[in-house]
């Protein structure tokens, strides 16, 4: 069964995503909303890691040995300025999208296994991932015109 | 019953007796009339040449009044007996503040910066400078280089003209008002829950309620006439029970004790935990009107699930209030026949502002307490002119409560203004004030027109605001009645006419529209804000699609008629109003149209809400992050006229106390300075009553710090500090209160000269994710005793 591979992938994605939110939040601390909400969302993702723990215990997690093929690397650093903010938010969007679709894949397996506990975890966590994507999309749409047209 | 208030005449001094003589009455009987009058010393009623119709602008009540004019000067004021809002009463601010600015320091000529100094000039020179810079930036960068930061203090006609100029003429999304600091959360909470802005209740609900809940609303000091109305119920038969949520002890919280209600004093920043608990208790105890909820709302299951963990014990721990008090407050809400709730800055300017305010709406929906006498919600405003920024679109909204995310609404505006729909910025919500300032800080906004507001005192984190205003690459226009802390940084200063010197309409917090006539000529070369905006449009040669002038108007009444067309069919429909009709006995509630020719006093009595996807003002947000709900998802929820029960978990505030900064700072208003120092600050009686700021410490904290009443203390946050006298009492342990709106124009000019005193030196650059209202009520500070000068004057006794 390859579910353990995907549980491992999810586990790693979540931790990478939480770190990335914190990094972007701190890297753009001069944008107070970005700073605060990135940290709120990162704390939420820590909660997902906790909720996944019993699942990891049950199914085990198989760490993929070719990280560049399955795992998205985290962020090395953040950029600066209005366009830098836009790019960093886009990076977060990519990472959150990967997490989102991984939840979907794991959720499908949970359906097949009729695993109610896992289904509950997937359902509530995927809603939160959706919230992350929705905020990122909103903030990117707000920032883009000024960054791309008027910023020096 | 008339109260004559002539100084020295032995009549009540309303500085000492803020709310005036009681006129108690029973539930469901009309509030008795009491006419308050105040004339300048030496002027008798017989000396008055004429009385000119207006309404007071000093708090959100908007009390109807007549201005006494003699020899071309305003010499007094009188409440209008027949008006639905005040039944003749005026508060100390209305009586002493609104008309007494005939002083010598008014701005009477435009000023321009020459060699670093502001010097007097003529209108042509001043306007040419503005237009030259504006045109150059429009050519080089385009409309995103322009920002307009206006007020909550102009008239409807002025806001509408400004909105058309900015959105259809230049095409900039960067327009907002100081209403962002004040009522943005009221608007946001109404939009999230009901689908559109618009106050459901009316002030008349006070006459009929059995319980009144005040959430972060020190009504006794911020809306004195409305509090007089509450007092008249409290002193009459069958008084309502009062419940107050406020970290300080105030007249309101004392009334809660006297009436068998509850005073909840949560730690600042924890309102959402408290509200989640109240909602949970109402659900758990079966006080929900299931039928109403099923027929008229969506989202119950998610709300119930979100609030479930907030037991009284858990909320008590977060908020540091007794669990029993939370249970009792919920019981009063859940079991009273008619509950009225009012919400103000203790929620709006705090952490999770919109989420907490939405919970108040939720409580009312859960019990079906909406749209009927005594059962109402009041998401309050700071001033009666503030509603008009929201309606007319001079702030972060579109005119007529239109939805930026609905292409049909944009097409309507484009047809109305005869411009290309692409001219009207609607790719995202209009830029909120805090973001406008950030863009100016980063240099992408290079032209900032500030009208009728004083951001160098009112915005958070003043050292930062002063740095932005000082920027070489930012061209600043300031338009006001007096020189202010902000005008000292301007490139051009335009002298504006004030209340009583110009004509226009405005709408108070309960949707009552009043007409304010011009009583006297503005001083010197000062012009109405409307004339200034129209002059700019003409000089910029702003045109519509067919080459005609975009703003062809020249009088307020013409703009009013244009606005009526813009409001047609929208929730704030003004088509049934006219200047002539507003010259009748009383103010009129909107909507006023064919269906409601005399206005509609309460909205949603029928349980039908403006949530239809084609009609609603907003598709809403995630309350935790502010992420937009997409049109597709909104439609999928099928609200179809039902209200949204929205929920959010509690999260800790962005700044919490620690070893370095162990106290929570909360800022706010007290009776004499509120909205008088933000406007002119020139009323002698009000200034004498509260000449300078102070810091309130709890007795326990004062003892621990070794601070006695009157000692000079330094309050310091990571951003800045104030040095003010201490006052002991009222607050809860761990919390320091400092009144804001005190600046430097009357001490040293534009910035602190050795002794900082503006509360906003210390506050955070942080805002609510949904309403974008700054968090003025939560910051971490430390307190140091400096020395012991003379004792400060007391606040309202």
From TrEMBL, chain A:
<protein>
    <submittedName>
        <fullName>Uncharacterized protein</fullName>
    </submittedName>
</protein>
UniProtKB/TrEMBL annotation, chain B:
<dbReference type="InterPro" id="IPR006656">
    <property type="entry name" value="Mopterin_OxRdtase"/>
</dbReference>
<dbReference type="InterPro" id="IPR006963">
    <property type="entry name" value="Mopterin_OxRdtase_4Fe-4S_dom"/>
</dbReference>
<dbReference type="GO" id="GO:0016491">
    <property type="term" value="F:oxidoreductase activity"/>
</dbReference>
<dbReference type="GO" id="GO:0043546">
    <property type="term" value="F:molybdopterin cofactor binding"/>
</dbReference>
<keyword id="KW-0408">Iron</keyword>
<dbReference type="InterPro" id="IPR050123">
    <property type="entry name" value="Prok_molybdopt-oxidoreductase"/>
</dbReference>
<keyword id="KW-0479">Metal-binding</keyword>
<dbReference type="Pfam" id="PF01568">
    <property type="entry name" value="Molydop_binding"/>
</dbReference>
<feature type="domain" description="4Fe-4S Mo/W bis-MGD-type">
    <location>
        <begin position="49"/>
        <end position="105"/>
    </location>
</feature>
<keyword id="KW-0411">Iron-sulfur</keyword>
<dbReference type="InterPro" id="IPR006657">
    <property type="entry name" value="MoPterin_dinucl-bd_dom"/>
</dbReference>
<dbReference type="GO" id="GO:0046872">
    <property type="term" value="F:metal ion binding"/>
</dbReference>
<dbReference type="Pfam" id="PF00384">
    <property type="entry name" value="Molybdopterin"/>
</dbReference>
<dbReference type="Pfam" id="PF04879">
    <property type="entry name" value="Molybdop_Fe4S4"/>
</dbReference>
<keyword id="KW-0004">4Fe-4S</keyword>
<dbReference type="GO" id="GO:0051539">
    <property type="term" value="F:4 iron, 4 sulfur cluster binding"/>
</dbReference>
<protein>
    <submittedName>
        <fullName>Anaerobic selenocysteine-containing dehydrogenase</fullName>
    </submittedName>
</protein>
<dbReference type="InterPro" id="IPR009010">
    <property type="entry name" value="Asp_de-COase-like_dom_sf"/>
</dbReference>
């Amino acid at each position: 069964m390859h579910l353990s591979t995907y549980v491992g992938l999810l586990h790693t994605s979540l931790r990478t995503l939480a770190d990335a939110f914190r990094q972007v939040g701190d890297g753009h601390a001069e944008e107070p909303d970005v700073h605060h909400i990135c940290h709120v969302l990162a704390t939420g993702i820590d909660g997902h890691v906790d909720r996944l723990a019993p699942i990891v215990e049950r199914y085990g997690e198989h760490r993929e040995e070719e990280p560049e093929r399955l795992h998205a690397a985290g962020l090395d650093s953040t950029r600066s300025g209005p366009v830098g903010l836009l790019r960093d938010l886009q990076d977060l969007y990519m990472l959150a999208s990967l997490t989102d679709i991984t939840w979907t894949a794991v959720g499908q397996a949970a359906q097949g296994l009729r695993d109610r506990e896992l289904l509950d975890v997937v359902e509530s966590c995927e809603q939160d991932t959706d919230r992350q994507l929705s905020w990122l999309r909103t903030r990117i749409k707000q920032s883009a015109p000024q960054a791309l047209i008027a910023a020096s | 019953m008339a109260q004559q208030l002539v100084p020295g005449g032995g009549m009540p001094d309303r500085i000492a007796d803020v709310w005036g003589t009681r006129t108690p009455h029973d539930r469901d009987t009309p509030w008795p009339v009491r006419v308050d009058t105040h004339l300048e010393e030496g002027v008798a009623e017989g000396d008055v040449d004429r009385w000119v119709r207006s309404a007071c602008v000093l708090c959100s009540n908007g009390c109807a009044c007549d201005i006494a004019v003699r020899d071309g000067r305003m010499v007094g004021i009188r409440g209008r007996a027949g008006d639905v809002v005040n039944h003749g009463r005026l508060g100390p601010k209305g009586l002493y503040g609104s008309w007494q600015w005939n002083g010598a320091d008014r701005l009477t000529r435009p000023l321009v910066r020459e060699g670093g100094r502001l010097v007097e000039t003529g209108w042509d020179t001043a306007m040419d400078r503005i237009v030259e810079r504006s045109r150059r930036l429009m050519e080089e960068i385009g409309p995103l280089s322009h920002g307009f930061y206006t007020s909550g203090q102009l008239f409807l006609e002025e806001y509408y003209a400004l909105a058309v100029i900015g959105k259809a003429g230049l095409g900039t999304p960067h327009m907002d008002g100081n209403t962002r600091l004040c009522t943005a959360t009221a608007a946001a909470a109404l939009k999230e829950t009901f689908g559109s802005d618009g106050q459901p209740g009316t002030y008349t609900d006070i006459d009929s309620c059995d319980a009144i809940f005040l959430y972060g609303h020190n009504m006794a000091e911020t809306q004195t006439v409305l509090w007089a109305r509450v007092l008249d119920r409290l002193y009459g038969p069958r008084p309502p029970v009062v419940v107050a949520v406020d970290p300080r002890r105030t007249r309101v919280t004392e009334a809660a004790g006297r009436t068998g209600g509850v005073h909840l004093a949560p730690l600042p920043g924890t309102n959402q935990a408290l509200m989640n608990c109240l909602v949970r208790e109402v659900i758990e105890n079966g006080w929900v009107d299931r039928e109403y909820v099923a027929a008229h709302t969506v989202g119950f299951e998610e709300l119930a699930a979100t609030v479930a963990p907030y037991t009284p014990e858990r909320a008590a721990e977060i908020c540091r209030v007794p669990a029993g008090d939370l249970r009792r407050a919920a019981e009063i809400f859940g079991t009273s026949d008619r509950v009225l709730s009012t919400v103000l800055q203790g929620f709006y300017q705090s952490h999770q502002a919109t989420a907490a305010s939405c919970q108040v709406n939720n409580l009312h929906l859960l019990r079906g307490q909406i749209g009927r006498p005594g059962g109402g919600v009041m998401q309050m405003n700071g001033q009666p002119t503030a509603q008009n920024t929201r309606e007319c679109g001079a702030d972060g909204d579109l005119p007529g409560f239109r939805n930026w995310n609905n292409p049909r609404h944009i097409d309507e505006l484009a047809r109305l203004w005869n411009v290309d729909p692409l001219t009207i910025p609607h790719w995202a919500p209009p830029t909120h004030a805090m973001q406008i300032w950030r863009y100016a800080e980063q240099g992408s906004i290079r032209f900032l027109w500030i009208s009728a507001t004083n951001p160098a005192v009112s915005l958070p984190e003043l050292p930062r605001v002063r740095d932005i205003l000082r920027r070489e690459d930012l061209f600043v226009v300031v338009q006001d009645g007096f020189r202010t802390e902000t005008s000292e940084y301007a490139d051009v200063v335009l002298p504006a006419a004030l209340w009583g010197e110009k004509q226009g309409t405005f709408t108070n917090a309960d949707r009552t529209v009043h007409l304010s006539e011009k009583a006297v000529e503005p001083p010197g070369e000062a012009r109405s804000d409307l004339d200034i905006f129209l002059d700019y449009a003409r000089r910029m040669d702003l045109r519509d699609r067919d080459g005609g002038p975009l703003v062809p108007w020249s009088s307020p009444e013409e703009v009013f008629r244009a606005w009526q067309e813009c409001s047609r069919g929208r929730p704030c429909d003004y088509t049934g109003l006219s200047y002539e009709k507003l010259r009748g006995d009383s103010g009129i509630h909107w909507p006023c149209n064919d269906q409601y020719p005399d206005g509609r006093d309460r909205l949603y009595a029928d349980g039908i809400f403006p949530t239809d996807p084609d009609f609603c003002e907003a598709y809403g947000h995630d309350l935790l992050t502010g992420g937009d709900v997409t049109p597709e998802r909104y439609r999928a929820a099928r609200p179809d006229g039902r209200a949204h029960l929205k929920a959010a978990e509690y999260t800790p505030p962005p700044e919490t106390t620690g070893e370095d900064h162990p106290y929570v700072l909360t800022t706010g208003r007290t009776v004499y300075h509120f909205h008088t120092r933000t406007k002119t600050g020139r009323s002698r009686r009000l200034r004498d009553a509260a000449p300078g700021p102070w810091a309130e410490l709890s007795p326990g904290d004062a003892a621990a710090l070794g601070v006695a009443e009157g000692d000079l203390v330094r309050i310091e946050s990571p951003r800045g500090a104030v040095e003010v006298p201490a006052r002991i009492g009222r607050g809860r342990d761990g919390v320091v209160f400092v009144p804001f709106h005190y600046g430097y124009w009357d001490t040293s000019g534009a910035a602190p000269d050795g002794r900082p005193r503006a509360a906003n030196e210390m506050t955070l650059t942080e805002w609510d994710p949904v309403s974008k209202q700054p968090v003025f009520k939560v910051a971490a500070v430390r307190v140091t005793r400096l020395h012991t000068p003379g004792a400060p004057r007391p606040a309202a006794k």
